[in-house]
Amino acid sequence: MSAHSRRDVLLRAAAVTAAGLTVQQGLSPRPAIAGPSIAGGPPPLGPVRVGPDDPRYPDLTRRGNRRFVGTPDEIRVVGSTEQVVAAVQDAVRTGRRVAVRSGGHCFEDFVDSPAVRLVIDLSGMTGVYYDPLRTAFAVEAGATLGEVYRRLYLGWGVTVPGGSCPGVGAGGHVAGGGYGPLSRLHGLVVDHLYAVEVVTVDRSGTARTVFASREPADPNRELWWAHTGGGGGNFGIVTRYWFRSPGVPGNDPARLLPRPPGSVLSFTVQWPWEGMDERGFRRLARNFGTWCERHGGPGTAQARLYSELVLSRRPAGNHSLIGQVAGAPDAVRLLDEHVTALGEGVGVAPVRTQENLPWLASALRGNGDDGRRWRLKTKAGYLRRGFTDRQLAAAYHHLTRADYANPAGSVSLNTYGGQINTVASAATATAQRNSVMKLFYLAGWADPAEDTAHLAWIREFYRDMYADTGGVPTPDDANDGSYINYPDVDLADPAWNTSGVPWSELYYRANYPRLQRVKARWDPRNIFRHALSVQPG
To answer: Where is the FAD-binding PCMH-type domain (predicted)?
Structure first.
């Protein structure tokens, strides 16, 4: 999406890169299918069973945040829905805690917890194809976003408005809501989700597949709804998603999903810390918030512009604005106006680079090792308006503290709103539908001996940013909770959340009781659980 990948910019100062099933035919409006109907096609990969003595084990247990390295008894690499069913049934039969991995980008230990004894790795399920039976595009949960973009675009000229890191797996990204550079134009990924195929475990302990769609007559519709932002690892294991935009008539695949722009204007703008005082810092952050408030509505020319202002620690040297403007002749003008508005009164001159790229080339730009060599802690928040003076003072303090030397600490301000906010809060499990900014707090480091210092810094930073609301972004006229795809177990810790508002409300707001009812029906034995999982109602 830009001349630098998102996470490369976030952590550049430290060379860090930063985010099933026996088919129940009777319950499906249309029968579930196992994959594209290709006679004599290749058999699926796996199942592959990898234990601690297998040379593949270290790679399969080091696919996420290096703070957490799992020690499961077994990793099952699967290539089909049937293999997922068998793996889940084995876990239930043997009483082993089970977790699923698609891309491996979880910021907490939901997969790599010491309690997890069987990991189901979806690396073999990477199909992306048009399903004429459902008049929708099928995406297997192990496919990376880069593969989803490539296949949808080259095959049919369409896409889903997902994230900017091509190595992220579709499985968890979609279940948590999914947003990216095109979301201000086309909404969240889940706004285009038509159906899911999920491996669940019933009260008797039997693993089975369930197909659930958004069709009003589908008796399993609530299970579909829970996967429109309810988070991964809560209700079962998604093996396949189907996408088709609501209200699109006909069955022409090239018209069933948004068409991305032919090209984008990719940009990076840097404001140096050198010469910037607290007043200039406050102006830069405040200007970004003001721009988002003014241009957070749908249907405007500015909705084509997506940017992230990365406010970095002083040792990093610069604050960076990265992003893109989607196509059209006025892209340079829109960027000019954006940079001018942000820089007003800052007092230092920015350095700007820009490049016109074909959309797909921009979407597929890689991001190094994707953070997997680094220890990470992240936090998140939504804003309905810009920062308060107290928040600006807190941000300046923690980004310039002399007692903390790490350059790889930041808070990113992401443009939000636009088409996202045209959807009602209860229409999907993603409840935050009137915010204009999304925040991403980050600390990255390499040495385990430094964990205490870095965790303390980011926790204190976050606490002070929300000092008026108990240390967390409780939903009010300014804040709107947090994002489950940037999970943070501190929200469930009364030492850091003194607001009296439970973590579940921060993530799901009024949608949580409904998610609990879905959980109670489809995972009554609480097989699929983690530190922030939905609890049965």
So the answer is: 68-248
Q: CA-CA distance, 319 to 268, in Å (whole number)? A: 10
Spatial separation of the C-alpha atoms in residues 446 and 369, rounded to whole Å: 14
Residue 448 in this model has a pLDDT that exceeds 60? yes
By three-state DSSP, how is residue 163 classified? coil
For 123-141, what is each residue's pLDDT tens digit?
Answer: 999 999 999 999 999 999 9
Q: Is the confidence at residue 259, as pLDDT, over 50?
A: yes
User: What is the Cα–Cα distance from 524 to 537, expressed in whole angstroms?
Assistant: 10
**What are the two backbone dihedrals, phi and then psi, of residue 335, each rounded to the nearest 5 degrees?**
-70, -40
Nearest CA-CA partner of 485 in 201, 181, 169 = 169
Q: Which of 57-66, 145-154, 237-246 has the lowest mean pLDDT?
A: 57-66
Q: What dihedral do alpha carbons 496, 311, 230, 75 form, nearest 10°?
A: -90
Q: What's the CA gap between 60 and 103, in Å, rounded? A: 11
The whole-angstrom separation of Cα 64 and Cα 48 is 20
Amino acid code (one letter) for 449:
A
Rg (CA), the chain: 22
143 vs 64: CA distance, rounded Å: 16
**Residue linked to tokens 């973590």:** 503
CA 195 centroid distance within chain: 19
**pLDDT at 26 > cutoff 70:** no
* CA dist list (Å): 273 to 3, 12, 83, 359: 21, 15, 53, 32
281-295 confidence digits (pLDDT tens): 999 999 999 999 999
Among 19-28, 357-366, 450-459, the minimum mean pLDDT is found in: 19-28
Q: Do 472 and 501 meet the contact criterion of CB atoms below 8 Å apart?
A: yes
Instruction: State the CB neighbour count (10 A cutoff) for residue 240.
Output: 27
The β-bridge relationship of strands 128-131 and 136-140 is antiparallel
